[in-house]
Amino acid sequence: MRRMFIVAGLFCFVCASSSVLAQSLFEECKQKKQDIAEMENQSTQIGLEVDEFNKKIRELQREKFAKIGEKTKLDKRIKIDKAMTKRMCSGLRQCDSLDRKIENLKDKIAPFSDRLRRIRKEIGERTAEVVRLNRKVDRIEASYTQLNCDNLIPGKAAQSTIDRCTDLFSQWNQLQKDISRIKGSVAALGHRYKKVMKRLRRHSAELARLSQKMHKNCRHSARFADLEEMEREQHDYRAIKDELAEMETKVRKIKKLKIRRPKMKPVLRPMNKKKKKKKKKRPGLRPVR
């Protein structure tokens, strides 16, 4: 009897366990089906995305090949334009080089320009001094002539006149020293000018070469104005030679006066009016015939 109960119990347990297992398997299968359905949906969505990407890839490929063709044409145009620009703009690169040479030459010429400007200033000063000396010469000459300093007569010439004539002679003597000094100064100016121009000559030759090239290809350059200014200065510097020659002529033409130290004219004694009477010869008697 007891065995029967045990068997019945085991049968019930088995039946109950089978029912539970069947229920669990059903739920699991259901869940699996849902998971599979969800994954299939995802796969379908991914497939749609892949198709979209493939479509975009095909479009990008077409754009890629279009861009490659466009780039090929552009590179060909660039190569042609580079060659043309090189030929066309080679002069501009030359202008850049010329600009640097002009700037360098300007720095080299600057010290000589300063010296020549000082020489020109001194020429003006010497010229003004020559004018002043000529006026002084005229004044001394007029006073000397008016006072008749070359013909002073003792006892008749006032002491003030004698003193004035002596002073005029002293002024003239000093004037001769000033004239000699100016002549020496003019000669020194001429020597300085020749020395500077000799050293400047090689720079002038370089300036002429640069000017020829700049006038041909580089008139647009900002340094072109500097070049023209240097050319004008060079012309002015050469003109200093004529200014020196003119001043030398003026110095040579300073009025020359022959002024002597005032000398008293000797007083001439009046001649004796009494003349010796000559003995008159009495006429001889003629013999009577």
Number of helices: 3
Tell me about the largest β-sheet.
none
Q: Tally the beta strands.
A: 0
> Cα distance, first to last residue?
264 Å
Briefly say what this structure is.
Helices cover about 80% and strands about 0% of the residues. By secondary structure, it is mainly alpha-helical.
Description of the structure:
Helices cover 81% and strands 0% of the residues. It is mainly α and 289 residues long. The chain is rod-shaped and about 200 Å long. Residues 273-289 have low confidence and may be disordered.
List the helices and strands and how they pair.
Blueprint: H1 2-147, H2 159-217, H3 224-252
Helix pairs in contact: 1-2, 1-3, 2-3
Q: What are the salient characteristics of this protein?
A:
289 residues; mainly alpha; rod-shaped; disordered C terminus
